[in-house]
Every structure is written in structure tokens, then in C-alpha cells.
Amino acid sequence: MASSESNLLMNKLRLFTPIILAVLASCGAENSAENTQVDSISFSYAIDTVMIDAKDEFLFLNMDIYFSDYSAKERLLYNINPQSGRVEIIDLENNRLEKLVQYELEGPNGILEMAMTGLKKASNGDFFFMNYYLLNQLDSSDTKTASYRLTNEFLNGDELAENEEIDGMGQIASDGSYFSSFYGNYQEKGGLRGIAKITFSDSTLQLIPLDFWADMDKYTIKMDVGDGRAVSSPERKFLTLDDQNFIVSTTAKNSLWYYDAAMDSIFYKEYSSVLTQNEKVVNYPITASSQDSFDDANKQKNDQVVFGPLVKDENSGRFYRYSRERDDSENNYAYVLTIFDEELNQLHEEKMREGVTIPGYYFAAKTFVHDGMLYTFLNMEDELAFVRLKPKF
């Protein structure tokens, strides 16, 4: 790999893809509405921490299991070591390592090309291994059945413009029917264009313009480090799949964009919280001249509200989201759980009890729903654990 390509990839891995865009534009009709609290449910919760018995194995926790995948059908967590190709299969019913599977990195059934960015265990039994420019599909016998390169030469349908590329750190539908991710010109400021969707059955590429990042650059803190180089701390963006549809949200605002595939339309929804701000306020320096001032400005920004990604419960259809905001409690932050129904109406928001901490540096760590409970990754002295929240309706 060339040095420039390697640096570009590492920057994307570090930031979980760059964050740069402009105002909402859909490929179909635009729709928007404010969605306020519909607090008509009785809600409580229990919370605990559960440890995973690793059976004397050293599980791969270096990337906070960001590349792992939870299979709702099998009720198993698949965690991959992207350097070795070893997959750790975690039994969440018994809270233990079930088995280890070593996949080939090279050869006819090899899963690696340049850099691994994740995996997906589809409900049909197939495994997908995501690399930055290539997806490899293996059947239940670990035989490679297909590869999908994320370029115009290998895809049908829509075409990427010159210098545009698809972010390989995307999402694969639970049934294994398609891959979706952000696309754009990542070397150009404001170069993110929207969402790319690749249907595996015919390798068809659909580009869905979503020009939603108009004012997000205002939150970015930048520092010139000399020699024409600069570092920055932008807000984050999230992509959540919902069957054939998708949801885009950000850390900065209490809102989302929903793409309805059947209607080929984007719907914009704003929400109102009584427990946190609804948007960050730029009352901190956006330029820094030293590492100390850069860190200081980031602390000021990070103490404001941070919205995490939406997480879907495949069984109930509900969505959950953790957010946080600085306060004067014993753990310095108020953590809030927001619950949405299948139509993404806000059902309820709940401030966690004082002393409860949801793991994660900036937003909630890797979170998924198992058996109706929210599991959030926790590294306990290099041992795999989860903070487990059980909603009671």
C-alpha cells in the first residue's frame, strides 16, 4: 500500500469516516416535521454489568469491538481480529466464548485485501467480510462465493464521479441483500455526497444524494500543525439500516434523516428533549494554536450534548439512542436513553440514575439489542464485558 493511501485510510479508521457535508437534498420528495415527546408509556429499567468468560483466551478488544456484529437470529456476537482473521463467537445466553474460527487471509477463500473494516453474519447463514474497497462473501462452509469491488468497473447502475469513492466502513442488511455506506470525494472539503447502496443479487449501485451537512462545519475545531498540515475534530455521523431503508443522524443535533426506499424519498425529523439541549452551541474556540488550546476547546465542546447512533431492536421494531451532557452529578455527565417506535416517533426519554455511566469516549460505545436488553461494550482491565440495560414497559 502506498504511504499516502495508508495515511488516508488510517485517518478514516480513526474518525470512523470523515464528516463533511451541506443542506438536505433528496432524490425524491422532501418532507420535514418536528417530532415532540409522546410520553404515553410506563417505563422503568434495570441495569447491571456482565462479564464474558473468555476461557483463558485473549479476546481482540483493541478497537473496542467496533468491527464486530451481533446476529439477532442466532443470538451470538461475532468479533473479528482484523489483523489475523480470527473470529471470536460469543454466546450471550451463557456469557462465554463459544468458539474461535480462523479464516484464511489469502488464497481462494481469503477474506483480506488491504485493510479489514468489519464483518456481517447474515440471517441466511452467509458471512460478509468488509475491506475498504472490497466485500467478500462466504457461505456456511466458508467457501468464497462472491466478491464485490466498490468501483464503477465492477458495479452496474449509477456511476461514481471522478475522485468519488464509497466508504468501505458501511453496513450490510441483516438478510444479506445489500451493502450501504456514505460516498463522496474525501479529499475535498465538503465532499461527502450521500449514501451508496449496492444490491448483491445483481451488483447494482444506487447513489442517493443526501446533502445534509450544510452547517456541520461550524462545530469543527481546527489546529494548524505546520508544513501545510492541520488537524481537526469534526462531529460524527451515523448510518443505521432499517430493512430496505436507512437512517442518518449526527452527534450534534437532535434530528435525523430517514430514507424510505419504497417512496424513494428522504424524510427529515426533528425532536425535542426536556433533559438535554437539542443542539450544540458554538461557544468555544474553533481554532487552536497549540495542543493544549486544542484539547481545551474540545473539552468545552465535548461537555455539551452528544447524541449517539440509533440502535434497532430487530424483534420489537423499536429504536434506542443514548445521549449525554455535562452536569454536576458524581460521574460528571447526565446520560439519557431515548426510545422511538417503528415509525421513529419519540415515545419516551429517561435520564439514567446518578452514578450510572454509559461507556464511550465521545458517544456510547458499541451497542446492540440482545433479548430486549441494550448491551454496551465495556473493557474491564482487558476483559470483555457489557453494561446491560433492561427496559421495562
Which architecture does the CATH hierarchy give at level 2?
Answer: 6 Propeller
Give the helix tally. Answer: 2
Give Rg in angstroms.
21 Å
Question: Structural class of the helices, strands and pairings?
Answer: mainly beta
Proportion of residues in helical segments: under 10%
Number of domains: 1
Mean pLDDT value: 90
- Are there runs of 5+ residues with pLDDT below 50, and where? 1-30, 32-36
Terminus-to-terminus distance: 52 Å
Q: What is the CATH topology?
A: Neuraminidase
Topology:
Elements: H1 3-15, E1 30-35, E2 44-51, E3 69-71, E4 76-81, E5 86-91, E6 96-102, E7 116-121, E8 127-131, E9 134-138, E10 144-149, E11 156-157, E12 165-166, E13 171-172, E14 178-184, E15 192-199, E16 204-209, E17 221-226, E18 229-233, E19 237-242, E20 245-250, E21 255-260, E22 265-271, E23 287-288, H2 291-302, E24 306-307, E25 311-312, E26 319-326, E27 333-340, E28 346-351, E29 367-370, E30 373-380, E31 383-392
Parallel strand pairs: 1-22, 11-16, 17-23
Antiparallel strand pairs: 2-31, 3-4, 4-5, 5-6, 7-8, 8-9, 9-10, 12-14, 13-14, 14-15, 15-16, 17-18, 19-20, 20-21, 21-22, 24-26, 25-26, 26-27, 27-28, 29-30, 30-31
Pfam families: DUF4221
InterPro entries: DUF4221
